[in-house]
RNA sequence: GGACCUGUGGUGCAGCUCGGAGUGCACGCCGCCCUGUCAAGGCGGAGGUCGCGGGUUCAAAUCCCGUCAGGUCCGCCA
């Protein structure tokens, strides 16, 4: 049907009679004797010259047959890859008519996302989505190649799985053949891949769709895609090596950038210096500790276990409104307030300045190499809250758009095994209950569980959490101790994870794994702030699909077949 | 569950602070003209419940309340 892609027509084809197919990007008519058609396909645009007028309007689908000809002197278009040539003496065959599209398909204006999503099939015709989706395909291919090279075996796991009531809220699928019973869609293939290790598969990977019924964000969709990995007879360093190789291969293919080895940082250090477990290392600001300086302070606002401070270079020029904004943000994150100090040539400028002792003033004025013109922000509170609040302010103040390079990867290691307690007063697993504690901390499980570090690790890129993984527990004795610490009885464990624990009785190899979000990775490579831009058919923040109208009612018949009934009236 | 931002011809904006006739700009669309354009050009034209509902007012796109949709964030995401 076609001989060439539009964008590939060039001087090499001069003199050839060729056909191209595509959409009319633009028609320019010059009376009844001459018209230009810009024909667009996935590869680009080529100009067809038509003697006489032609009724082929924007977005008509056409097949144009013409002779590749050098453009006349002075009419070469440097902005087109095909701009040195054109198709002349053209025959235009109209394959499909088109109404005027609801928005322009060129990239001259930003279109409201609501409209783009309603007509996603038109949006995908635009350069932005074309290049994002192709970038994603190249990343997928590079990841698969890297995993194959490293001896991994791609295995598909079920989408219809058993409920494991813990962690993220699950999407539920009623069973037709088993009245009153349900499948769930997997939050991740976590247990399946561990079973593959018991099965002796040794090294597994999958580009896996995961589904979580939790509220959506710029970097979170109900359904998202992870590169999911598990390997036997390996330790944390091995997994880090496998994943680094895959991600850096993808980076090289996607953006032609390949940093050396990815550095590591402990979770404790990330929290202390950056106030988060996903530090954005593209900019230098770090949190400082003033707890010792203010230990016996007279300043009431600083009477807290921890006093943390952040130097904002050249921040003294921040307006009062801007400082109020930052204070609001700090409060909304749970801080009692935010203290600010402008470093001026006359000393500190701040509502609190006159309450400070000489030593306290000096500590602030010289914080982190502070100079005249800088601003120092101080939060006093419990340790984690103070870190968290200043970490968020650090990002607000300093963080470039997520896609801006140079890209900065970091492995965050030694996460705590447990965090906080649930409604029943039981400890909660920070990662998941199959995570192996740090070997040195095993004795603390019963005595000081919150101090137990786990062999869990995250990969962070530009302040986004790409993914996480861990060394898994393969020994029944350690697993029972963890379940006990989590307040999960033997009976309950059997109930929830019986098939996994059963499998482990038949010879479980030591194993470890990882999973990282491909949507996020591609978004960053594409310079997009939002993963919807790298997903063909995403949902809105309220979980709606504006194109199909999902979620929708189903028929009475379907309800009956599935043995489900409304208890509250739908709209 | 909560906070904030946005909603004006098909599209992107301005108008809203400080109420006074649906006013303006750009693109698109339709018709006519035009033989080298490529963000083509010229002339003419069509196209609007100002998201929706209520309130205040002589008068509401504009002020107030509610609501819906979209977005960003907190909670949530083992």
Which spans have pLDDT < 50 for at least 5 consecutive residues? none
Briefly note the structural class of the backbone: alpha+beta
Please summarize the sheet with the most strands: 8 strands, mixed
Instruction: Tell me what portion of residues adopts beta-strand conformation.
Output: 15-25%
Determine the N-to-C terminus distance: 49 Å
Structural Rg: 30 Å
Question: What is the architecture of the largest domain at the second tier of CATH?
Answer: 2-Layer Sandwich
Please report the number of helical segments: 14
Strands in their spatial order, largest beta sheet: 6-9-10-22-21-20-17-11
Structure description:
- The chain folds into three domains: 6-96, OB fold (Dihydrolipoamide Acetyltransferase, E2P) (Beta Barrel), CATH 2.40.50; 109-267 and 464-473 and 509-571, Bira Bifunctional Protein, Domain 2 (BirA Bifunctional Protein, domain 2); 284-398, Gyrase A, domain 2 (2-Layer Sandwich), CATH 3.30.1360.
- 27% of the residues lie in helices and 25% in strands.
- The protein contains 14 helices and 22 strands.
- The model has no long low-confidence stretch (mean pLDDT 94).
- The strands form five sheets. An eight-stranded mixed sheet has the order 6-9-10-22-21-20-17-11, with helices on both faces.
- With 571 residues, it is α+β, with helices and mostly antiparallel strands.
- The protein has helices at 113-118, 120-123, 127-149, 190-198, 236-255, 267-274, 320-332, 358-365, 383-398, 444-447, 476-485, 490-504, 518-526, 556-562; strands at residues 17-29, 34-41, 44-51, 61-70, 85-96, 153-154, 172-174, 182-184, 203-211, 223-232, 263-266, 287-289, 306-312, 339-344, 347-349, 375-381, 409-413, 418-421, 427-429, 456-461, 464-471, 511-517.
- The structure holds one RNA strand of 78 nucleotides.
């Amino acid at each position: 049907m076609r001989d060439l892609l539009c964008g590939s027509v060039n001087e090499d084809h001069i003199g050839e009679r060729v056909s191209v197919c595509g959409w009319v990007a633009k028609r320019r008519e010059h009376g009844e004797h001459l018209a230009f058609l810009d024909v667009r396909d996935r590869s680009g645009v080529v100009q067809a010259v038509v003697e006489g007028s032609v009724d082929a309007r924007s977005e008509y689908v056409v097949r144009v047959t013409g002779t590749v000809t050098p453009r006349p002197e002075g009419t070469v278009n440097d902005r087109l890859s095909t701009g040195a040539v054109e198709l002349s003496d053209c025959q235009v065959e109209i394959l499909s008519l088109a109404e005027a599209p609801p928005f322009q398909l060129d990239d001259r204006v930003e279109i409201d996302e609501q409209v783009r999503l309603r007509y996603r099939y038109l949006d995908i015709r635009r350069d932005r989505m074309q290049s994002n989706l192709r970038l994603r395909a190249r990343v997928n291919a590079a990841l698969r190649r890297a995993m194959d090279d490293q001896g991994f075996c791609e295995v598909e796991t079920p989408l219809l799985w058993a409920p494991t009531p813990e962690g993220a809220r699950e999407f539920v699928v009623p069973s037709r053949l088993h009245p009153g019973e349900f499948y769930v869609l997997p939050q991740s293939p976590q247990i399946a891949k561990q079973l593959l290790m018991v099965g002796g598969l040794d090294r597994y990977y999958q580009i896996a769709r995961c589904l979580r019924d939790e509220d959506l964000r710029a970097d979170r969709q109900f359904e998202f895609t992870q590169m999911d990995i598990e390997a036997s007879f390996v330790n944390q360093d091995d997994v880090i090596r496998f994943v680094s190789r895959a991600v850096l291969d993808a980076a090289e293919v996607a953006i032609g950038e390949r940093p050396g080895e990815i550095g590591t940082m402990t979770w404790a250090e990330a929290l202390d210096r950056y106030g988060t477990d996903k530090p954005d290392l593209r900019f230098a600001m770090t949190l400082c500790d003033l707890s010792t300086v203010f230990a016996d302070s007279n300043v009431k606002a600083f009477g807290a276990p921890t006093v943390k401070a952040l130097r904002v270079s050249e921040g003294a020029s921040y307006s009062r409104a801007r400082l109020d904004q930052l204070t609001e943000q700090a409060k909304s994150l749970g801080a009692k307030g935010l203290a600010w100090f402008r470093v001026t040539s006359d000393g500190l400028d701040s509502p609190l300045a006159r309450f400070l002792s000489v030593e306290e003033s000096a500590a602030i004025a010289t914080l982190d190499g502070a100079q005249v013109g800088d601003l120092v922000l101080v939060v006093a509170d419990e340790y984690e809250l103070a870190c968290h609040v200043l970490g968020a302010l650090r990002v607000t103040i300093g963080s470039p758009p997520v896609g801006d390079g140079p890209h900065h990867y970091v492995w965050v290691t030694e996460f705590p095994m447990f965090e906080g307690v649930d409604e029943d007063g039981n400890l909660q697993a920070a990662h998941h209950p199959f995570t192996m504690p740090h070997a040195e901390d095993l004795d603390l499980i019963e005595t000081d569980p919150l101090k137990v570090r786990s062999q869990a690790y995250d990969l962070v890129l530009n302040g986004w959490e790409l993914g996480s993984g861990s060394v898994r527990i393969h020994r029944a004795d350690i697993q029972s101790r963890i379940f006990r610490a989590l307040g999960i009885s033997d009976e309950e464990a059997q109930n929830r994870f019986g098939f996994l624990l059963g499998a482990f009785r038949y010879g479980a190899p030591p194993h470890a794994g990882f999973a990282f979000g491909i949507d996020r990775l591609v978004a960053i490579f594409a310079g997009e702030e939002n993963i919807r831009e790298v997903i063909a058919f995403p949902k809105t923040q309220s979980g709606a699909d504006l194109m199909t109208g999902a979620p929708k009612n189903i028929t009475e018949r379907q309800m009956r077949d599935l043995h489900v009934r409304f208890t509250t009236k739908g709209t």
